Amino acid sequence: xxKESQRTLExxxxxxxxxxxxxxxxxxxxxxxxxRVNSLESKMDLRMDSLELRQNEIYLVVxxxxxxxxxHRAEVDNLKYTISNLEGTINTIGDVITKRKAI
Length: 103
Description:
- With about 100 residues, this protein is mostly helical.
- The protein is built from one helix and no strands.
- Helix content is about 100%, strand content about 0%.
């Protein structure tokens, strides 16, 4: 009976050792997965930072283009006003010349 008990205990110990080995193996795999996930998170953080930087740069370029467009529009309006003013002056000079010829 004692031999049988000892064999049973040895079998139980063997199974426990196998389970312990499997648990250690699983722990190692989980640690590897954790390392890989951390690495991926770091890469994603870097990419997100890069994308945010690009987005900010694009926003600044768009704002600069918008400002340039407004300045250009104001300059064109100013030129239109100047041309209209010159046209009025030339028409007035033409009217004066026409009146003097008539006299």
